[in-house]
Known about the structure:
Strand content: under 5%
Number of strands: 0
Number of helices: 14
Mean pLDDT: 81
Shape: globular
Amino acid sequence: MTVPVNRAGPAIAFVLFGVLCISLNDMLIKQLSSGYPLHQIVFFRSLIGLLVTLVFLQFEGGLPALRTDRPWLHVLRGVLVVIANMCFFLALAVLPLADVTALFFVAPLFITLLSIPLLGEKVGPLRLGAVLVGFIGVVIMQRPWASPDALEVSRIVLLLPVLAALTYALNQLMTRKLGVKAPASTLAIYIQCTFLVVSVAFYLAAGDGRYAAQVTNPSLEFLLRAWVWPAASDQWVLLGMGVNGALIGYCLSQAYRLADAATVAPFEYIGLPLAVFWGLVIFGDLPTWEVWTGIALILSSGLFVFFREQAKARRTIQRPVARRH
């Protein structure tokens, strides 16, 4: 039986860099959302990302590393990632970047909690208390007390990032299981291929814009808009997004391979201040007091989990270990 590795340091480094790449990806997709359909952006990003990831694969076993005895689990994982991305970006087309990211950040909390029954990982009462604080922060940013008129969008749109969070959490827990045998590049390639299949299917069904003519909802318009040839300046943006997408897939797959989900997940919280930064600098969206309060609570809980994990690791190292000579 193969035992999962648990290398917290490298895993945390991978997830932090991966989240930085995600924040750049989200900012660029929001910029492009008014001119291109979502499935076209996904197609170019995934095609370029696949080519880059194939280079990574050469350093992790080459094409033989793509063989798997659990192909349907890889397919299921890919579908979960596609659902998570589609829901997130459809919400991103109409909501401020910080708001969508804040709603999505129930995902690391889902991961920490679901890792207990699904992976059998141990999460102590102090870390569970920190997770509860994080949930309070997420609830504050969702503003459940606000009336529909005050929200300016439907409750369905607000639920899209939460659905994205749930499917993303399940995907990352599956990454932990599949990563015992598969390298990070293999996991990322299966994801990129799933994105390509889904985006081509959308193109064949709606790529001419036939379903977008009578649509007034901005999220649905983003999904159903006709494909157009990218402007010269946007071609470089799409190329950069493809490279960036490859880095995202590899870094997150590697992070959840190297350490348990409850250790890695809280560090995804760094995406919250990054989203606020891009939203303010690029789109001029000033966060509300609810967003600031929620971010403070979530970051506090994430930092507590980190220091708790560090203390736990030090105690483990200090214990005497029986050695064979």
